[in-house]
Design a protein that fits this description.
There is one protein chain. The chain is of the alpha+beta class. The protein has one domain. 48% of the residues lie in helices and 16% in strands. The strands form two sheets. Strands 3-4-5 form a three-stranded antiparallel beta sheet, covered by helices on one side. The chain has a two-stranded antiparallel ribbon with strand order 1-2. A hairpin with a 5-residue loop joins strand 3 and strand 4. Helix 2 packs antiparallel against helix 3.
């Protein structure tokens, strides 16, 4: 009777789906989280680039609209305009640097963070861009 028992265990197929699922789950979750992180970073970059282009245009025109709180005549006003145009982007203290490298141009540098801390083996990227409008 004792020899028949190991043979029955070797022939038993119950639970194989659970074992296969447990083996595949970590790779599948890493793939899904990677896709979500890539999409978030792409959205973040596009939002910042759009806001920079519109703010550089506002600065080049020297646009001031006191009724709506828009004042692009100074760099501080341009930063306020930039942050209002980049809706949804988390601006934590010191993450964003807006500068004016030359007349009619604006540049930003933004230190991002990962959505899920510790999931990526590298540090979060720093996005930067320059936008110029000339008449």
């Amino acid at each position: 009777m004792s020899a028949a028992r190991p043979r029955r265990l070797l022939q038993c197929r119950r639970g194989t789906a659970a074992v296969e699922f447990a083996l595949i789950l970590p790779a599948f979750l890493a793939l899904i989280l990677g896709v979500v992180e890539f999409g978030y970073q792409t959205w973040l970059r596009v939002s910042l680039d759009y806001a920079l282009a519109q703010t550089a245009r506002c600065v080049a025109l020297g646009y001031v609209d006191g009724a709506n709180g828009i004042d692009c005549s100074s760099l501080a006003g341009a930063q306020t305009q930039f942050e209002s145009l980049a809706q949804g982007v988390p601006f934590s203290g010191g993450a964003l640097t807006l500068s004016q490298p030359s007349a009619g141009c604006l540049a930003y540098s933004y230190q991002t963070t990962w959505l899920v801390a510790g999931i990526m083996p590298v540090g979060a990227p720093t996005w930067s861009n320059t936008s110029c409008y000339y008449f």
